[in-house]
Design goal:
Elements lengths: L2 E2 H7 L6 H9 L3 E3 L2 E2 L5 E2 L4 E6 L2 E7 L9 H5 L2 E3 L7 H6 L12 H31 L33 H8 L5 E5 L3 E5 L8 E7 L4 H11 L2 E7 L2 E8 L4 E8 L2 E8 L8 H17 L3
Antiparallel strand pairs: 1-4, 2-3, 2-5, 5-6, 6-7, 8-9, 9-10, 10-14, 11-12, 12-13, 13-14
InterPro entries: DUF3558 (IPR024520), S4_RNA-bd (IPR002942), S4_RNA-bd_sf (IPR036986)
Keywords: RNA-binding
Protein name: RNA-binding S4 domain-containing protein
Length: about 300
């Protein structure tokens, strides 16, 4: 017997409310068997559910399906908790935090942010020139108490580039790059796009997730805990990470842009395994294409 994933993660007390469970699914923070799940995604015993909550990823295996909230002892009988231990405090302390209520900037605010970045760069360049000239003159630097300090502008949530529909790629692009025949688009909204070969997420899947105001450091820490291998990655001067698990035929590439980041996730078909290098090459190529087509 199956049940909805949003009802299940609420029933076993992973989220405090049913609405929070649905919001986590719609935000791309819930995955079933490695694939981003919609609220109505059915789950059955044996399925693996990953839920990203408060900077930590919870991983549970379904042993019994329920759709009504129960006590903690009863809930513990309905799943096997395979969650890794929480990240060390040092990692959590080093990760940036989003200001509450930052939200998505308007077009006017985006133009203002662009001007702010341009002016900040100009000020930094002038300061560097002044320091160089002062060093070459051999004179001791003097401080002017009447001269105001100009602090560096912090990263703004949503101030990264605009990636457009599905990261700027088409269904044809995804089929050509991944080599997955029979892909169809199953999810398409402002932050998530997904392509599936079976329509039931039991075969090969590719997905694009765009996170605004969600620092990439938190996601990277989760990937380090959940994937066999995780390495730093740079594409066209932009920093990020790549993580993969050979047995699960899954490779993820995340690229950061200030307080935003996007992530490409490619999962091969377990029935016809492929070298993980091929899957990761596809994830890197799709990430490169999204960066090149951003505005």
């Amino acid at each position: 017997m199956s049940t909805r994933v949003d009802a299940y993660i609420w029933a076993i007390r992973l989220t405090k409310t049913r609405s929070a469970a649905g919001a986590a699914c719609r935000g791309g923070h819930v995955r079933v068997n490695g694939v981003t799940a919609k609220p109505a995604q059915p789950v059955v015993p044996g399925d693996e559910i990953r839920v990203r909550l408060a900077g930590r990823e919870r991983i549970v295996e379904v042993t019994r399906t329920i759709s009504k909230r129960v006590s903690a002892p009863m809930a513990a009988e309905c799943f096997v908790d395979r969650s890794p231990p929480p990240p060390p405090k040092e990692i959590l302390a080093s990760q940036p935090r989003r200001d509450r209520g930052a939200g998505r900037p308007t077009k006017r605010e985006r133009r203002q942010l662009d001007r702010l970045r341009d002016s900040t760069f100009l000020i930094a360049a002038l300061a560097a020139v002044a320091l160089l000239v002062g060093a070459c003159s051999g004179d001791e630097p003097t401080s002017d108490p009447n001269k105001p300090n100009t602090p560096e502008a912090p990263a703004q949530a949503g101030s990264g580039p605009f990636f457009g529909k599905c990261g700027g790629v088409s269904l044809e692009d995804v089929v050509r790059i991944t080599g997955f025949a029979g892909l169809t688009e199953t999810v398409n909204n402002t932050s998530v796009c997904e392509w599936d070969t079976t329509g039931s997420r039991t075969g090969a899947v590719a997905s694009f997730n765009w996170y605004r105001g969600s620092p990439i450091g938190r996601e990277e820490a989760n990937v380090k805990l959940s994937r066999d291998v995780t390495n730093r990655l740079e594409i066209d001067g932009h920093q990020g990470f790549i993580g993969y698990t050979q047995s699960g035929q899954i490779c993820e590439v995340g690229i950061g842009f200030g307080a935003d980041f996007f992530e490409w996730s490619i999962r091969g078909d377990a029935a016809t395994p492929r070298p993980i290098e091929e899957i990761c090459d596809a994830a890197r190529e799709l990430a490169t294409m999204s960066i090149e087509r951003a505005s």
